[in-house]
Structures are given as structure tokens and as C-alpha cells.
Amino acid sequence: MSITKIAVMGYGVVGSGTVELFYKNKESICKKADRELDIKYILDLRDFPGDPFEDKLTKDFNVILNDDEVQIVAELMGGKTFAYEYTKQLLSKGKSVVTSNKELVAAHGAELLAIAKKNKCNYLFEASVGGGIPIIRPLHQCLVGNKIEKIAGILNGTTNFILTKMIYDQLSFDEALKLAQQLGYAEKDPTADIEGYDACRKICILGSLAFGKHIYPEYVHCSGITRVTLDDVEYADNAGYAIKLIGSVEAEGDKLNAMVCPRLVSKNNMLASVNDVYNAISVTGDGVGEVLFYGRGAGKLATASAVVGDIVDAAKHIGRPIVSLAWEDSSSRDFIIRYKESAVSIYVRITADEVDSYKEEISEMFGYVDFIPRKRRCEKELAFITPKLAEFEIDKRLEQISKKCKIESKIRVL
Amino acid sequence: MSITKIAVMGYGVVGSGTVELFYKNKESICKKADRELDIKYILDLRDFPGDPFEDKLTKDFNVILNDDEVQIVAELMGGKTFAYEYTKQLLSKGKSVVTSNKELVAAHGAELLAIAKKNKCNYLFEASVGGGIPIIRPLHQCLVGNKIEKIAGILNGTTNFILTKMIYDQLSFDEALKLAQQLGYAEKDPTADIEGYDACRKICILGSLAFGKHIYPEYVHCSGITRVTLDDVEYADNAGYAIKLIGSVEAEGDKLNAMVCPRLVSKNNMLASVNDVYNAISVTGDGVGEVLFYGRGAGKLATASAVVGDIVDAAKHIGRPIVSLAWEDSSSRDFIIRYKESAVSIYVRITADEVDSYKEEISEMFGYVDFIPRKRRCEKELAFITPKLAEFEIDKRLEQISKKCKIESKIRVL
Fold first, then answer.
1. Which CATH architecture group holds B340-413?
2. What percent of chain A clears pLDDT 70, i.e. is strictly above it?
């Protein structure tokens, strides 16, 4: 039997994890793949003297590109520059590419999938969302009988860790971020995580696959967790909610509502129980109802698990594109609903002298609101949850309130 | 393009749901399958006058068996008699069979998979475990890079509903069972659910797939929830646990530990948050760590969702067996560990006059035990959790205790 040769590009955390896991379980992997697989090259610009796989290391992308024996390439470099160029060239030559690069899939997925299809190979990206959690394949294979109605997920482990520490250990946002950095969960520049950009890329990938049209990150309203305070966490808790950074995409009529923002998640919802660096993705289909996928959303071997799964699938599908893994490109955001027009409940926290005197007015303004008790409520503070209304309608009413009270926080309810 | 013809055998809940979901989403299903699919026959012995698919109904299995146009058959009849014979005959003719029949897969999976392989067709059973929850395909495809270490799941919705009502509404077991029957969640004869047999079949299927060797239900220690009392539920709650019926299979050395029984599940474990008729399956692999799959474990359209997913996969793999979906047969239980030899912590509730006077003796006997406080503790009652020891060692010590106190309950800790 001929051996299917693989190249790994990028020998960082995920790349070295992939090589490690592949060789650790090679026998059972090849058995289940029903063919011999081996890694021929590892591409990295750095030197790794003494590395057990030193003989496979190369600094020259063209060695991989021009070796006809290499049929599958794992792009684990990240970024949108070299990774983009290399992926296009590899796919154009009919080599399948598997990747953990969410930034690239979110930015160029439609184009890269089309190039793969044209060249009868595959572009697979199970590792780009939720680390090792199986989600891409279940979505387009197991749930193929369903019309997907909604996806909502905790897609970023760093922010979930920070929020968990705020909820359970009463750390402030800044303290929790610092701890996350100390533990290696957050980068020195944590912007992509805490501002929601990372979660945004992931919900774009899931939404594009589920709804068949490329949702570019710039189409999606995105706000992070930097303004969530311990006061909000406590009020939410008292009202039966946990605050989570949620990426969501949902069909509304013939349009989609997509956003990333902190949300009050009811404790009856499984997503509220997802703590620390764990991720979870809830998918609702017209047949299956709600299903949820949970696990470690990042990490060396967890992500490698998804990469290896894709390598095996690519090996099984050499010469045959997986048709269900595809979506159309989009040229404008007009299939995305303007989020202010969408109906939502909002948690609001306001401060003012004698704030209680505004209770009746606020109630009347919204017809009805739920005021939230707080154990050690500051007399100058009031928190409530509005009924479900178009968001711009809520904003109008809050503008009225803001003439008398300071609006400290506004967090949407999931 | 030629049309791939399907037959559905059994027009009950799952059968009619499958037909309904298939025609509801036919266009997108065929697009993702990349071929035209249609249902040609529906087999049932009953008449369905006025049914929209009356023209497809047949009472004669041989019509399906002998129609060369039919390449895929959904066996949704259940049971081990006709379903077994029919499945063997269909597979022997090279027709792929997809099924929700856990009883049949657990009893004859190895044999049926071998027949399928020999005849270059597939035997698929995503719907046999966890209703619509994607679990079979993720296990052998997405997680192919992993050595699976452990599977533990809430695999039966009826018992989980009963336990949920005991935990949250303080219903007794009998009251909760009655309610489940009224709501249609439990059958008139609830034995298979409440005694754990249904969960046992499911853990056998998952374990066989994950560990590569057929685990027959008779190899598995199985006890149900009929002896779980409200007292136990309350003690468990006070100690930070929920009581759940757990099916589990785990590698221990070169053997497997498989069992179905009620367990104390720590509230930090996601499984403790799974309520009502929902199912969840936790899978631990050496790469991915723990991942969990959650959703409605039964129901017409949820199960149909899994069946349709398998139909599409069967259509994509006509003439090509899916090699990773397989396991060897087994001729004896000697790869299953004797469960009494496995180390476990056990929750114990005892009664006696002046029971507190035995506390010290019990502590000394086990080296250390956790006594559980209870709000309204009866003076004659004591509950504690033992340290982790081989179960037969715990039994020996409990035998000592049983000379002085009555042992009311014994529940393993997960």
C-alpha cells in the first residue's frame, strides 16, 4: 500500500502537538484511516536542534508545494499573510489543506473552499472552532437533515476564564485578566480575546457553514467583556443568570442576526454551567432541537486532536471534495439584520440620587420591568431587566432615563 | 443523475418522523448529499388510510429486499427478531442499513458490521445512542487521533426525568415514575428504562466502538434507579452531588471497566447539570481531554435527525464501507474487569439507634470518611462517603457495620 504523505506547516504549540499526537497513536490512526499515513515535512523558519523530528524540518515552502508525494498539508502557522498565499497555492495544486487558522477561514473561507472544490481536494478546519470539540463535522454531516435555526456559543476560553473568576472568586476584570496572563491563558496583548474578535471569527465560521453564505467578521456587531463589572456579575447572579461572552447567529425571517457580546445567560441554560477555559456551542435545528458540544476550546493536544481528525478525513477523501462542507461567498452584509432592529431583553444598571424614586416611571416606560434585588444594594443604584423589544426602542427609552440617571451598564439577555 | 432510493422499515414514531423530516428538508439534504435521494418504500404491517405517503407503503419485506434500486434501508422497527433477520438479508445483498435499534446493535453489532464490510456496504447507527445527539460519528471520525480513555453518560431520558423530579420537586421515585408515564416519557412497563437495561445497551455500543471489541450487555454490571430514595437525593445534594444514572466504560490497564448504575455526580461535573429528559455523553481522550455531547436523547424528530444524517452518509459511501466504524467480536467477558475489584468511592446511608456512636468506629475502619450533614437529619440515620478503595474491600468493611446498623443505601461516586 502506498503511503499518504503529510506536511505540517508551523511547528509551534499546535504544530508540535499534532506531530506528537500523530506519532503517539499512529497505529490506530492508520488502522481507522484504512491506509498508511506519515509526516514527511515540518515547515518552520526556526531551528530546533535536537528535536526528534529534526530530519523532517524544512524552511522552504516550495519543497512541500512541489513534492507530488505530499497530498495533505496541515497549515498551523496562523495569520492571514503567508498562510493565505500558501493555502491558495497548495489547494491549486490539488493538495488538501487542514487548518486551525480561524482568522484565515473567517476572512477567506468561501474563496479557499471554492479553490479546493475546483481542484478536487479539501479544505478542512475542524480545529478552527472550539479546539478539539467536534463541531464542524457534526454540523454539516450529523445534522444534515436539519434546517439550522440558531447557534450560540462560548467560543473563547480566555474570556470565559476571566468571567468565571469574576463570578466565583469576585476578582475584578483587571485582576482576572492579570491572572489569566500569569497562567498563560491570555496573551500579553489580550485584545483579540477580550474585545471579542476571536469569538467573532469563530461564530462567522459556524454561521457561514450552517446558513450557507459567508459571514465576514466585519458584518457582525462585536463587543467584548472589558466593561463588565463585579456589580453586574452580582446583579445577574441574583436574577438567576451568569454573564458569558456569547457569539450567536440566528435566522430571523430570511435574514440572519449575528453578534458577539456579553450576555446574561439563564442558569437553566447549559451554557451558564460552562466555566474556566472551557468552550461550548449550542446548535438548534428544526429536527434535533438543541444539541450542545462542550470541551476544552484550546490547548496543544486538544487542538491537535481536531487537526489529526481532519488529516484522516482528508486522506479518506483524496480526489473527492466533501460537498457538504461549503458555502457561497457574499458581497454585502444585506443578509445580516441590523441588530438594533432585533428584539431583545436588556439588563440595565443605573445610578442616581434617590434612584428608587424613578422606579414607577421606568416601569411605566417599558410597560413592565423586573427590578433585581441585590444583597448589599447601594441606595443610589438600581438594576432591572427590560421586556423584549426592538433594541432601538429600548435605547429610546433609556435615553429618556439618562437625562435623570447615569446608565452604568447595559447587557443583553440571551 | 440517477436517484438513490431509500426504504423505511417501521412507520411508528421514529419512522414517521424520518419520512417527515426527510421531505421537509429534502432540497437541502440532497444538495449536501450531492445526489438525488428519495424514499421508495415504507414497510409496516399496519394500514395508514389517508396517509400522505400511502402509495409508498408495503407490507412485504421481500419487495424491498429484491428491488435493486433500493440501496439504503432505514430499519426503525426495533427488537431483535425480524429486525435482525431483515438486516442480515439486506446487508448480505449489499444494501446499506441505518438504524435506531440499540437493542440489535448491542446484541449483534459485531456480526452485522462484518456482514456489511464483506458486502461493501454500511451498517450505521448514529440514532441508536442519544437520539439526535451526534456521538457515533464524532467518536470514530473527529476523535480518531485519540486513544479513548473513558466514556460516561446519561443515556436514558426517562430515568433522568425521574431523578430530576426527585431532586427539584421532591417527588418520590414512585410519584416521579407515574408522572413520567402520564407525560408519555415512560412506558407502561418501564422495566427497560428504570432497571438500566436501555442505558446498558447504549454504553455497550459506545464502548465497543471506542475500544474496538464487542461489549455484550451481559458482560456489564447493571443496576437501575428503583432503590434511590429522597433521603439519598437530599444527602447527595448536601455533599455537593446530584444522583444520576450513569453508563460508563473506562480503560483500566489492559482491561475495561463497564457498568450502569446510579452515581453521585459532583456538581462541578457538567453531567450534574443535565436535567429532565436530556442526555449527555462525556468522552475523554488522551489528546482532546474531556468533551461532552448534550441534547434530547429521544423523540420523533430528534431521532429522525440522526437517521437522516446516516442515510446521507450511507448515500455518500455506496460501495465503500466506512472502515473506522467497526469493532471485533468477543467470545468471553475476560477483557472486562470484575467491577468489585475496581477502586471506587461509595456513598453509604445507615440507620441504627444512637447511630452517631458508631462514627468513630466507621472512621477508623476506613481510615477516613466524609460524614454528610443533612438539614433535617433523623437522629437514627447517618450518611457518609468512603475513600476510594476496591469495592470488595469496602463491602467487607460494610459487612462489619451491618452487624450493628442497617445499611439503607449504597451508591457509587462517579
1. 2-Layer Sandwich (3.30)
2. 100
* Pairwise CA distance, residues A112 & A329, whole Å: 10
> What distance in Å separates the CA atoms of residue A396 and residue B95, rounded to the nearest whole number?
63
Q: What is the pLDDT of residues A274-309, one digit of tens each?
A: 999 999 999 999 999 999 999 998 889 999 999 999
Locate all alpha helices (DSSP H) within B230-299, ordered by sequence. Answer: 230-238
Interchain contact, B24 vs A286, CB within 8 Å: yes
* DSSP letter, residue B20: H
B3-132+301-316 has which fold? Rossmann fold (3.40.50)
Give the ipTM: 0.94
Question: Binning pLDDT at 50, 70 and 90, where does residue B184 land?
Answer: confident
Cell 434507579 belongs to B225
B280 has a pLDDT exceeding 80: yes
Q: Check for a shared fold between A137-296 and A340-413.
A: no
Quick: pLDDT tens for B297-339: 888 999 999 999 999 999 999 999 999 999 999 999 999 999 9
Residue type (1 letter), B141: Q
**B274 touching A, CB under 8 A?**
yes
Chain A within 8 Å of B30 (Cβ-Cβ)? no
Check residue A1 and give its pLDDT.
Answer: 59
Q: Spot the catalytic one: A40, A95, A202, A244.
A: A202
The residues pairing with B264 across neighbouring beta strands, listed in sequence order, are B243, B413
With H, G, I as helix, E, B as strand and everything else as coil, classify residue A357.
helix
In the numeric block, which cell numbers belong to residue A25? 497513536
In the predicted model, is pLDDT for residue B235 greater than 70?
yes
Backbone angles phi, psi at A95, to 5 degrees: -90, 130
Residues of chain A contacting residue B286, judged by C-beta atoms under 8 Å apart = 21, 24-25, 301
| CATH 3.30.360.10 at B137-296, yes or no | yes
Q: Is B134 on the interface with A (CB under 8 A)?
A: yes
Contacts of A274 in chain B (CB under 8 A): 270
CA distance A141 to B310: 8
- Judged by DSSP in three states, A273 sits in helix
Please state the domain extents for chain B. 3-132+301-316, 137-296, 340-413
User: For A91-149, what is each residue's pLDDT tens digit?
Assistant: 999 999 999 999 999 999 999 999 999 999 999 999 999 999 999 999 999 999 999 99
Q: What stretches of A137-254 adopt beta strand conformation (E)?
A: 148-154, 221-222, 241-252
Q: Which of A24, A31, A305 would you mutate first to test chain B, the one with the most B CBs within 10 A?
A: A305
Q: Contacts of residue B289 in chain A, CB cutoff 8 Å? A: 132, 295-296, 299, 301-302
Evaluate if pTM is beyond 0.80: yes
**Catalytic status, residue B202:** yes
Asked if the C-beta of A24 comes within 8 angstroms of chain B's C-beta atoms, the answer is: yes
Closest-CA distance, A18 to chain B, in angstroms, reads 9
Q: Does B302 touch chain A (CB under 8 A)?
A: yes
C-alpha–C-alpha distance, residues B66 and A265, integer Å: 54
Calculate the alpha carbon distances from B318 to B34, B38, B71, B253 in Å. 13, 15, 8, 39
